[in-house]
Amino acid sequence: MAFLTHAVSFFLVAVLWIQHTNAQSVPDRCRCPTTSSKASRWKNIEEFSITAARSRCKAPEIILTLKTVNAKTKEKEQRCISPNIYQGQILQECWNRINKDGRKATVKISECTTKSESTTTVSQP
Prior knowledge:
The chain has a domain at 42-118: CATH 2.40.50. Helices cover 31% and strands 19% of the residues. It has 3 helices and 4 strands. Strands 3-2-1-4 form a 4-stranded antiparallel sheet, covered by helices on one side. The model is unreliable at 115-125 (pLDDT under 50).
């Protein structure tokens, strides 16, 4: 009888663990505590992601992954930019055009090349 109790308990723990690992996590705060109002050079951007506004983060978040590598962590640098600057608006338009079904986590900047973007220069202060 004790074996049966242990087996059922183990089975329930396994089911709960599987359910927990399949669950999606929803961030409870903004991933970008601060955003830059300065545009990044287009040639330095490798890819970007946009997280829509949600209950605990009122503004959309645009996170750029730059081609440069951080010397300390050996990872590619990331930067958050404001969705209100010109570059942020261009990236949001590209995101909406390419990621219509919402399946992509990131979009390569090379996928966003259009006539208007290639002729537009972003001033770098």
